[in-house]
Structures are given as C-alpha cells and as structure tokens.
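Please, structure for the following, as tokens.
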Amino acid sequence: MTMKVNRTLVKLLLIFMILGASVYIGYQLIRETKEITIPSLLQPESGVRMLMSMEGFRFAQSENGAISWTMNARNAELFENKEAQLNDVEIDFKNPNGKEATLFGDSGTMDTTNGNASIRRVSQDVRIATTDDYLLTTSSLFWKAGERLVWTPDPFKLLGIKLYLAGVGITANVDLHTVVVKDNVKAVLQE
C-alpha cells in the first residue's frame, strides 16, 4: 500500500513540476517579448466600429416644438462615428402649411448628429411624392435637414398634374416652392 501512495505522490509532484515549469517558461517568454502579434484572422477589422444593429429604426426632428420630419427604416446599423446605415427608408416631411412630402428609397446613410442623409437606388428609383400630386424620381437623393433641401446630381423626372420636368441635377426645398435644375432641362406644361 505504501508503494501505491508513493507512486501517486510522485506522479502528482511530477505534474506540479511540469505545470510550474510551463507557467514559468510562459511568463519568461511574455516578459521578454515586447510586442505580441495576433494572427490577422483574429484581429478586428480596421475602420469605424458598428455599435448596434436594429430592426425598425425611427428618427424624428422637431422645430419650434413641432415635428418637422420623421425617418423610418426597416433596419439600421449604427456606427461609432454617428452614422446610420439604413435599408428601406421612408422620410415624411411635415410643413406648417399642411402640405407634406414622403421620400422613399432602398438604402441610405444618415448623420445622426444633424439629420443629413443620402438615399440611393438599389432595385427601384428614389422617389418623393407630395400631397399636392407631384412625384420626383431619380437614382440618388441627398437631404440637408437644417435647410430642408433635397438635391441630386443624377438625371431626374418630376411629374405633376400640369407639369412634366426632366433634366440632370436638381435642388428643391421639400415644399417644392423653389426648384433649380442644373442641365438638360425638358419641361412640358399642360392646361
């Protein structure tokens, strides 16, 4: 019986000595190594980090206590640089005079600090429909929230009850009170 106890004791001592030597060697290696390199497969991607991904994103801006516009997206990814990547975007513009406009787009980005956004076509044109029956279509639209301006450098079409306007590059306020077309203007007025 003493032989079995001695053998078990010797085995335990050997295991502790091997473990102790391994820990000591590991410590010496780490202490001597100034820089540890991590394989690139395990390193995080460089660039801006995503903070959150969500379904059903909603963002609103108010002016003088009244909501001036709201943005809804099917899903969004929010990044540490305050940018939101959006899919299936809808922006509703509210005006004090009762006229409203809605922008629809497949994907976009928005600066969550100021509300500025860019909306892009993926499968269908970016569109703005107004309550007074105007429809603007194009490949991309940019929204400057503080000035309530939309613009695009791309070809566009603007259809209304008495108006057809096409060209390349347009800037308009969301009320469509002023419209500036850059190039290749084609207009048809109907009575």
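The chain has a mean pLDDT of 81. The two ends are 114 Å apart (CA to CA).
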